[in-house]
Amino acid sequence: MKKRSLAILAGGMSLALLLSACGPASTPAASPSSEPAGETQQQTAEAEPVTITYCNFNASGGNEETLQRMYEAFHEEYPNITVEIETIAMDDYFTQMQTRVAGGTAPDCYELNIENFASYANKGVLAEITDVDLSSLDETALSAFNVDGKQYGLPGNFSNVVLVYNKDLFDQAGIDYPNEDWTQDDVQAAAEAIRALGDDIYGYYQPLTYNEFYKACAQFGGSLLNEDKTEFTINSPENVAAAQMMADRVLVSNVQPTDVQMGGMGDWDLFMSGRLGMIPTGIWAFQTFTDGCDFDWDITIEPGEVQKATHFFSNGLVINADSEHKDAAATWITWLASSPAAAEIRIEAGWDLPAVNDEETLASYLDITPPDNRQAVFDSLDYLVVPPVIEDYALMSDIIGQKLSAAANGSITVQEALDQAQSECEAQISLS
Q: How far is CA 261 from CA 206, 256, 303, in A?
């Protein structure tokens, strides 16, 4: 487990630097009515009954019951605090939260992903979190939600992406299983061998979307911004090569199905049907695959090109600066992020991982099968890549995503797509 600490250190430091760079250098403006959140948890436990509201997106689509179990365990420990939980699908979540925050109707506490955290913190709509016990949380994960030395969020979880593969299809094709030494050339060769098994069998699935693109860029030695984040580098040769590889797998070799060939089926559904050889996807898929696959599957570190790179995700738990119940909110999110009970429930459910520093708690994760090679989850932490966070992150990702979609369906070339994305980002977004 020592490797994990070192890997998180590198990832956490990068996140902290990104967050500090994407907003004003000054301390975020505080709401006139805001006060730091957090009496001691014992004081909160002895307080009068209180009801708070909590919004999240991460439990949507399969973990609503897991979150409810966490709340029930919390409520046994803090019976005076009632939490009204609202889970909103990711597609609608940030639009709703933006409207609620602007309209003064935001919940007492809520969840933010890394990409959106900095803009909320720099607008002064989050309460500083103080006087709570954070000793069980990973220090560098905490730093991802710290701005100018003040804690405006707690890391509620962390997760990453691995390569999941269908062992049965590899056996049928007579080829070796993927391993940590694989490159994209190995992926392509295996995908072609599996594709040859049948007209409706495919080797690989990685959509040409923004999130997959910035990771592939890193694997090819590229990035979307220059080193000091003052210029866009969207159409660099490395990035073009990464996107071309992704597009060619659909349009040329067809080891990856087109949208028409998918017939409305989701990527996880295709894998669980037994007709997909490999898919890079998040560790939150494990329980779904365990329940839905009637074949043997396992995982390994996601292959790279000139270097390996894989996604790192963490969601911050934050408190509304205008909440009238900051202390109760602080008690809830601290428990949710750091308590052993919440960590055990999260791990047992196969959701994602708690950002705690208790190696014994995390070690229990390795005992759960499938997959057999869960160690790859921790080994992958040596190769984390974080999104290029800027204040206009949503606009940048939308522009790039739209151009990639056009390239994916063949209506424009990859070079044209990235040239257009470069020009539009330069015209619409200031990096100064």
A: 14, 9, 25
What does the alpha-carbon distance between residue 195 and residue 189 come to, in Å, rounded to a whole number? 10
Q: What is the mean pLDDT of each run of 10 residues along the chain (432 residues)?
A: 34 39 39 52 65 98 95 98 98 96 98 90 95 87 88 94 99 99 98 99 98 98 96 99 99 98 97 99 94 98 97 94 98 97 92 88 90 95 85 92 98 99 98 87
User: Is CATH 3.40.190.10 the right assignment for the domain spanning 160-311+388-428?
Assistant: yes
Find the largest Cα–Cα distance for the chain: 67
Whole-angstrom distance, CA of residue 422 vs CA of residue 420: 5
In whole angstroms, give the CA distance from residue 161 to residue 164.
Answer: 9
Q: Residue 71: left if φ>0, alpha if ψ -120 to 50, beta else—which one? A: alpha
**Of 231, 408, 246, whose CA–CA distance to 416 is shortest?**
408
Q: Report which of 377, 177, 183 is spatially closest to residue 281, judged by C-alpha positions.
A: 377
| 297: CB partners within 8 A, 6+ apart | 164, 165, 166, 167, 289, 370, 371
Cα–Cα distance between 94 and 273 in angstroms, integer? 32
Residue labelled with tokens 């509201």: 53
User: What's the CATH number for 2-158+314-371?
Assistant: 3.40.190.10
User: What residues does each domain of the chain span?
Assistant: 2-158+314-371, 160-311+388-428
